[in-house]
Amino acid sequence: MTAPLVIDVEGLTKIYGGRRVVDDVTLKVPKGSIYGFIGPNGSGKTTTIRMVCGLLKPDHGRGTCLGYDVLRQSAQIKARVGYMTQKFSLYADLSIRENLEVIARLYQLDRRKARIDDALEYLGLAAREKQLAGNLSGGWKQRLALAACMIHEPELLLLDEPTAGVDPKARRDFWDQIRRFAKSGVTTLVSTHYMDEAVQCDSIAFISFGRKLIDAPTVDIPEQVGLAVQCVTGPDLAAIGDALEGARGVAFIARFGAELHVCGEAAGDLASAIRSLPPALQARSTPIPAGLEEAFIHLMAGSTDNFE
User: What is the rounded CA–CA span in Å between residue 201 and residue 188?
Assistant: First the structure.
């Protein structure tokens, strides 16, 4: 059975200073999904999310979010949304519990103490509830921010670069929590430019310079982009890369640790370029499936700047 659509919008456009910072974006997001907006800084990801969720009025376009019209019912949408910004924006000189009390009062929630107790327990904050927010590490600040934006039990969660500046374990714990929310029916929109964050999403929209380049389930994107990739190793990767740069069939080269991922649109031309390398370079190659990062680089290379 197909999940109902939480977001169903078309043609969303935002214009600043005569430039379309978001240009004719259409989205359909089912309930309980984790949906990623991927793109470079300044590409329009956050602006798109804000228009979808009633935080910013589009100049053109229409549609619904949580069953409410994005143009005329923004107040109803905002009341049902939790928004976690990249920058920690709670009160540094208040304790964890005190911060949650402030948020609960702002939302005029009933059963405030019970809700706060549940949030502290659910996100593992109970033992630290008296600690000042300003003294928390990045990972604990992240947990507190998530507790604050979920305390009113929103149906839709917005995450803007949510794991910037936190350690790998904190990132893993954070995403485990987001998946638990998704299982309970909470829909999540994630704005990011990190590939290790993108792979956590069920579906991804690639956005560049305000335009949506692709929108598909995460596992399907590399195949839809259609790149051929060869994994190349050797004693001097820099020299191998220099020799392949600009060769027929080579679109771009990305280094991953001790190997090069050499990418092109035609598998045969790519293989020929690698076979033509001088034997002295001792290059070895193996065809591999394209990954999200290769797809991302390829899509970005083909897009044009809306500020030019």
Answer: 9
Q: What is the pLDDT of residues 76-134, one digit of tens each?
A: 999 899 988 877 788 899 999 999 999 999 889 999 999 999 999 988 899 999 999 99
Sheet containing 81-84, strands listed edge to edge, beginning at the edge strand earlier in sequence: 81-84, 156-160, 187-192, 34-38, 203-208, 211-217
| Predicted model pTM | 0.84
CB of 248 closer than 8 Å to CB of 274? no
Contact 63, 40 (CB under 8 A): no
Distance between alpha carbon 135 and the CA centroid of its chain, in Å? 28
Per residue in 203-238, pLDDT (tens digit) is 999 888 888 988 999 989 988 888 999 999 999 999
Alpha-carbon distance of 278 to 263, in angstroms, equals 19
The whole-angstrom distance between residue 57's C-alpha and the CA centroid of its chain comes to: 22
* HEC readout, 200-247: CCCEEEEEECCEEEEEEEHHHHHHHHCCEEEEEECCCHHHHHHHHCCC
Phi, psi of 298 (to 5 degrees): -65, -45
Distance between CA 29 and CA 31 in Å, rounded?
7
pLDDT of residue 55 exceeding 80, the answer is yes
| Alpha-carbon gap, residue 178 to 189, rounded angstroms | 11
| Selected residue with higher pLDDT from 271 and 166 | 271
Contact, 156 vs 35, CB < 8 A? no
Structure tokens at 215: 């929108």
Quickly tell me which residue has 């976690």 as its tokens: 84
